[in-house]
Write a structure and sequence with these properties.
Helix content: over 70%
Structural class: mainly alpha
Largest sheet: none
Radius of gyration: 19 Å
Number of strands: 0
Number of domains: 1
Order of helices and strands: HHHHHHHHHHH
Number of helices: 11
Strand content: under 5%
Distance between the termini: 38 Å
């Protein structure tokens, strides 16, 4: 029990320490690609400290719900980190399974919806409308990937599934390869980066669900977003790029995923919501095809 608690605390501390660094690397690489100097790597840390030091202005329709949504958003992401492999075995793998992880991943998106709804702004309502449409099509994809891993591993245990189990078949892993393509194509949408940053869309609706937020509450939401970049990258590596072992090698693969995210975001224009939904629909169809293949042993 003590080992589990210490492992969970280590994962939480690691995520809190590295999440702003991942965001800083993304900004820096984007600036280099656009022939700009860009901010320093530690700028996200300074941004969070600045927001946390500001006055907490209550500007929404339901301030209590807004505060709860902000804190809950970060808390859910930190909870997910305890069930994710951040360079070593998930510390709470014995306390949860794939089903719990699916619920927590969905809940992290629901927090943003609740926060936008509590704000009550026209822009925030438009933002959560877009985000809700995206979630309905996107959230099943990660669930399907985890279920395919569970089918191949014949277990719901996280340490069994989050170890490249999508490829664990006797023959060629058709389901795993197809799901790898689906998740790679949808990864930008999971972390809300261009060309799928539709719910925020600063040039259209001024950060969507978070338009009424400032100060400490905005810092908590931003921290949670930075954390989701690390969490989803780590889960993607654990599921689809399991080769090699070691703490340093794992984080090198995560850094490579973040680099690819940056390259795609810097070179693609934002999709319209109707274009994105059609794209998500095609990926969802491919995901169900992969699940069917996994169910018959492929």
């Amino acid at each position: 029990m003590t080992r589990m608690v210490l492992g969970a605390l280590a994962n939480v501390g690691l995520l809190l320490a590295l999440a702003p660094l991942g965001e800083g690397a993304l900004r820096k690489v984007t600036a280099c690609l656009q022939s700009r100097r860009g901010p320093p790597l530690w700028q996200p840390y300074m941004d969070l400290l600045k927001l946390l030091g500001k006055e907490d202005v209550e500007s929404g329709q339901s301030p209590a719900i807004q505060r709860l949504a902000a804190w809950f958003s970060l808390a859910v992401v930190l909870t997910i980190s305890c069930f994710a492999p951040l360079g070593f075995r998930p510390p709470l793998s014995d306390a949860g399974d794939v089903i719990l992880l699916i619920y927590l991943l969905t809940l992290s998106g629901v927090c943003s919806l609740i926060g936008g709804l509590a704000a009550g702004s026209t822009y925030s309502l438009l933002g959560i409308g877009r985000e809700m449409m995206s979630m309905i099509a996107l959230e099943p994809l990660f669930a399907i990937a985890l279920i395919i891993g569970a089918v191949h591993a014949h277990s719901l245990r996280l340490d069994a599934v989050l170890n490249g189990s999508v490829y664990a078949t006797d023959g060629f892993p058709w389901a795993g390869v197809l799901m790898l393509g689906v998740m790679a194509a949808s990864f930008q949408a999971f972390i809300q980066r261009a060309p799928f940053d539709i719910s925020e869309a600063e040039t259209e609706i001024m950060e969507g669900p978070l338009v009424e937020y400032s100060g400490p509450k905005l810092a908590l939401f931003k921290y949670a977003q930075m954390g989701r970049l690390i969490i989803h990258s780590a889960l993607f590596v654990a599921l689809f790029v399991p080769w090699g072992s070691g703490f340093v090698f794992f984080w090198a693969k995560v850094a490579a995923v973040i680099l690819v995210v940056t390259l795609v975001a810097a070179t693609h224009a934002r999709y319209r919501i109707d274009q994105a939904i059609r794209f998500y629909g095609a990926l969802l169809g491919a995901g169900f095809a992969a699940l069917a293949l996994a169910s018959i042993g492929f």
